[in-house]
Amino acid sequence: MTVVTEKVSTLEPTPKTKQMRRRRDGTEKAGWLVRIAVLIIVLMWTLPTLGLLVNSFRPSVDSSSTGWWTSLLDPFSTDWTLSNYVNVLTSGGMFDALINSLIVAIPATVIPITLAAFAAFGFAWLRFRGRGLLFGVLVGLLVVPLQLSLVPLLQIYQGTGLTGSFVGIWLAHTGFGLPLAVFLLYGFISQLPQDIFESAYIDGASPYTAFTKLVLPLSIPALASFAIFQFLWVWNDFLVALVFLGTSSEVAVLPIELASIVGSRGEAYHLLTAAAFVSMVIPLIVFLALQRYFVRGLLSGSVKG
Amino acid sequence: MNRAVQATTSNERWASITRAVVVSVITVAALWLGLQFLSQDTVLEGLPPNASKLVQALIAIVLGVAGIWALFYAGNTMLESFPAKVRDALRPYLFVLPAVAVVGLYLIYPTVGTIVTSVTDVPEGESFFYNYADAFTDPEVLLNLRNNTIWLLIAPAASVFIGLGFAALVDRIRLESLAKSFVFMPLAISFVGAAVIWQFVYAWKPPGQPQIGTLNAFWVGAGEILVGMGILTEIEPIPWLQVIPVNTLALIAIMVWLQVGFAMVVLSAAIKGVPTEMTEAARIDGASERQIFFKITIPSIRGALLVVYTTIAIAVLKVFDLIYVTTGGNLDTSVVAVRMYQEMFRFRNFGAATTMAVILLVAVIPIMIINIRSLRRQGIGA
Amino acid sequence: MSNRKWLALLLVLGLVLAACGGDGGESTTTEADAAPGTTEAAPDEGTTTTEGGDTGTTTAPADSTGYTELDQALAGEFEGTTVDVWAQWLPESVEEANFIATLAPFTEQTGIEVNFQATPDYETALQVAVDGGNAPDLAQIAQPGKMHQYADAGALVALDFFNSEKLEAEMVPAFYDLGHYNDTLYGIYYKSDVKSIVWYPVQAFADNGYEAPTTWDELVALSDQIVADGNGNPWCISIESQEADGWVATDWMEDILLRTAPEEIYNQWITHEIPFNHPEVLEAADYMSDIWFAEDYAYGGNTYINATWIGETQDPMFAEGGPQCWMQKQAAWIGGFWGENRDFIAENPEAPQSEWPNVPGEDVDFFYFPMIEEEFGTPVLGAADMFVMFEDRPEVRALLEWLATPEAAEGWIAAGGFLSPLNTVPAEWYTYPNDGLSEMVLNATTVGFDASDLMPAEVGVGSFWSGMVDWVAANGDGTEEVFQSIEDSWPG
User: Fold this and answer.
1) What Å distances lie between residue A304 and B2, B300, C81, CA to CA?
2) Neighbour subunits, C (≥3 Cβ pairs < 8 A)
3) Subunit partners of chain B (3 or more CB pairs within 8 A)
4) What CATH architecture does domain C197-382+442-488 belong to?
5) Furthest CA-CA distance within chain B
6) Quick one: which of A137, A138, A135 has its CA closest to A127?
7) Is domain C67-194+383-432 given the CATH code 1.10.3720.10 in the classification?
8) ipTM
9) Res. B40 pLDDT band, cuts 50 70 90
10) Which class would CATH give B132-202+240-378?
11) Residue ranges for chain C with pLDDT beneath 70
12) Which of A93, A179, B336, C28 has the fewest Cβ atoms within 10 angstroms?
C-alpha cells in the first residue's frame, strides 16, 4: 500500500484529485458540484465587502437611494467620484495616523511574542508545581472584557506618567495579548516531538539552550501566525488606543483618526465607506503576504489527534 | 577533599552570580533609561516628529526583545550557579513568571478589582449580593442573557460547520489559496468596518422605492418573480434589523461571516495534516469519500475542532462593538457586554457594570475548563 | 572575598544608574501664575499693565471685561501658557473649524495657547479620562445630567470665582440656571440649539398653495391636505442613530409637553416629582401619535421611522419630481444634510451656505412648531453645550470667562450655525437662520431645556430612547406599557 501511495504521489501533481477521478464514476459531477459550492460560498463572503467598495466611489445621495449593483450594471451613467477617498485621505492627520499605527502595532506585536514564547515553552516542557493552575488562569483571562481594565489601569498610568505615551500602550497591548499568545504558542510547542528534546538533554543541553536553539527555530510558523493575529488586532484596535494613548495628533492611530473623520454622531456617515476601506488595506496586505505562515503555523498542536 | 571541592564550587558560584548580576544590572539600567527616554514626548533634535517617533519605536523593539532576552539569559545564568535541585525547581518559574506578572497587572488586577466592586458598590445598608439580585430580577438583563445563549448556541457551531465544510471542499480544487483568501478577508476588517458593510446589506427602503440593501434586493427581486408566477400575492422588503427576533439572527450572521475565515484556516491546515496513508488505505479498501471524511478525517482533527470552537465561543460571549454600533442594543438585540458598557460609561453604575462583567466571566468558566481538559489530554500531560 | 566586594560595588553602581534614569522629568507643567486671586475688579477700571517682556501682542482695549482673570490674561500675564479643551465637535468638521477660528482672537490677545481636541467617542473618552485622573482643563458637555455626575464625583471645579452677577444679567435665564447644581455654578453655556422648528420646501409649498401653519389645528389640516392631494406623505420623520437611536422622538415629546402642560409639570417630570407616565405626559404622547402614527402621515410608516438614519430622514423631500415628504422637525444643523448638500459640503467645506445646492432660507425655510394649547403660549425647546472646568489655573479661568463673552461667539456666528445663549450678542451679527432663531428664543414664553438631557442617564439616554424605539416598532400601540416601563426604569 505504501508503495502504491508513493508511486501515485510522484506521478501526479494532485494525486488525490486524480485518484478520485480515476476511481469513481460520476466524479465529474462531484467535481463540478464542489466547484459550484465553493463559488457560492466565496460569493456570499465577498458580496458584502464588494457592496461597500462600490459605494465608496459613489456620492452619498446615490448610495442612499439606489443599490450599489446598479452602478456596476450601468457604469457609464454613474456619477463615480473619488471625493470620499480624497476627503478621508487628505484630512491632515491621515499620514501621521498611519505612522502612529505602525509605531504602535509593531512593538506591540513583537514584545508579547517574546514573552509568550518563553512562557509557552515553560508550560509545555517544564514540570513545576502549579503549572496547571497558572496555565488555566493565564488562558482563562482570554475572556476578560477590555472595558473592565481601563479605569484601574488608567489610574496607575496616571501615577506613573505613562498616559499618552507609546510605552504605555505597548505594555498594555502586551498585557492584553499575552493570554492568546501563550495559548496558541503552547498548542504548537507542546506538539513538537519529544525525541528532539531528549537527545538534546542527553547531550547535556540545558532547557534554556534547548529553547533557544531548538524550539524557537521550529516554532517560527507559530510565531509568525500569532504575529499576524496580534498585528491585525492591534492595528484595528480603537478602545485601548483611545484610553491609553489619546487623540492628539502626535499619537492618534488610524482607527481613531477615522472615527473622528466619520463622526461620533455620524455627521459624515457617507465617509464611512471610504474610511473603512482605507483602514482595511494594510491588514489585508499583511495577511495576503504572510498567508503561507498562517496555514502552516496554525497547526497549533491540536492537529495530530 | 570535600572542602576543596566545595570551595571551588563556591567560587564558581560567586563568579556566575556576579556575571548574572552584571548582566542584569546593565539590562535593567538600559531598560530603565530606555523607558524614561521613550515615555517622554521627546522629539529628537533635528529630526521631524515622525522620524523621531519611528526611531523611538525601533529602539523599543530592540530594547524590548533584546532586553527581555537578556533578562532571561541573566536569570538563567544565575540559576546555573545553584545546586541542580534548586535550579530545576526554580527554572520553570523563570520562564513563566514574567508573562504571568505582566498579565497579572493588566488582567488579573483589574479583574479582582471588578469582582470586589461588584460586591462592594451597593447602596447603603444592602447586602453584598444586591447587584446580583438586582441583575437577575431585571427583565432587561434576563433578556440579555437569553440573547447571549442564543448567540452561543448558534454562532460558534455555524462558524465551525461552514468553516469545516469549506475547508474540506476547497481542499480539492485548484485555486485553493485564492478561494481561501476571499473567505479570510473579513478577519482583516475591524468590527466597525463590518458593521458598515452589513448596514448596506440589511438596508431597507419603503416598498415601491428601489432597494439599496443587498439582501432586500434579493428578497424583493425573488419575491416579485414569485408574484409574477402567481405563487405570492405581494412582497415587501423587510427591515432586517428591526424585526424581532430576526434582527438577532441577522447580527449573528455578521459574526459568523467574520469568524468562518478563522475556522476555515485552522481546519484546513488540520485536514491537510491528516496522514495521507490513512486516507489512501481507506480509499483502496473501497471507502467512499464521505465515509473517509466522517470516519477518518474528522476524528483526526478533533483537537483542532475543539480549539476553534472554544476560541470562537469566547469571542462570541465578548461581542460588543458589533451590536452596539449596528442596533445600539435596541429592539431586543442587546447582550450582556453591551449592557455592561452602558452601565459603565453611560449610567456610571459601577456596581451594575462590574456585575455584568462577573456574569460573563462565570459563563466562560465551563468553556475554559473544557478547553484546558482537552489540551491536557493532548499536550500538557506529555 | 574580592568577589563579594565586586558584587557590592556593582549593586551600588546599578542603583546609582537607576536613580539617574529616574530623574528624567516627565510632565510639562504649565506655569501657574502666582497672581493672587483678587475679588472682582471694579467695572470701570481702565488700566492695562504691560509687563516687561511683553512681545508685541496686541493689548486688549482699555476697559475691563468685568472678569478678573480675563483682564489679567488680556494684559498678557499668562502669556505662553496652554489650556486643554475637549469637545464633541469633530476634526475637519465645520464645527471644529469654526470653533478654532473663534478662539483665534483669544490667543492673539492673551498669548495663551489653546489646545483643542475633538474627541471621537466623546462620552467614553471623557469619562475614562476623568476617572483615570487625566481630565482636560475644560470640557464641553451637552447634558446637564453629566455635569451633575461629574460634580458628584468631585471632579469639577466650582466656579465661585466667576462674576456671576454679570453672567446672570447677560445670559438667558434658563441657561444661566442650568449651569448650576446644588446652588453652585459649574458650567458656562456657550452654544445653543433650538429644536422647535419645522423645515419645509419653499417652492413646492408655494406651487401647491400650502402655507406654513401657526396653530396645531392648521398643522393637522395641512397634513390632511397633502394626503388628500396625493402628494406623498406630509411628514419626514426618522430616528435611527446607531447607539443613540430614539433621541429625535424624545425631542418631539418634550416640545409637545411644553405646549400642552404648564412649565411646572415639565420641570416636575424631569425631577421625577411626578411619574414619567403622568397623565399629562400621556396626553402629549397622544398628540405625538396623531402625527407619527396617523395613516399616511409619516413617509414610509413606522418602519421608515426606525430604519432610516437621521441624516437621511428628509431625502424624499428632495426627490426628483417633487417632494415625497413635506415637513421635517429638526434643529438647524440638519441643513448640511439636505439632499445634495452632503456631498457638496464634503467637496467644498469652506463654501458659504449661499452656495449650497439647497440653501437654507431660500430653498428650504422653517416655521415655528406651532402652539397647541393657547394658555401655554409659545414655548421653545432648546439644548445647549456648556463648558465645565476640571483643572483650576488662572489661564483656564481666563479662557472660561472669555467664552462667556460675545467675542467668543463672534467668529462662529459669522460663519453660521451658531446660536449664543447670551443676550448681549448684537442681533445684527446673526445670519439666517439664527437671526430668526435668536429672536424666537428671546421672545419665547418659556424656554425648556431638553428634558432627556436633564434626566438621570438610565432614563434620559437609556430607557427613554429605547422606549421610543419600541413604541415606534409597535406603531404606536401599547403607549401605556411603554411609558410605564420607562417609569419603572427610573433609578432609585
Assistant:
1) 51, 7, 65
2) A, B
3) A, C
4) 3-Layer(aba) Sandwich (3.40)
5) 107
6) A135
7) no
8) 0.73
9) low
10) mainly alpha
11) 1-63, 89-95, 118-121, 349
12) C28
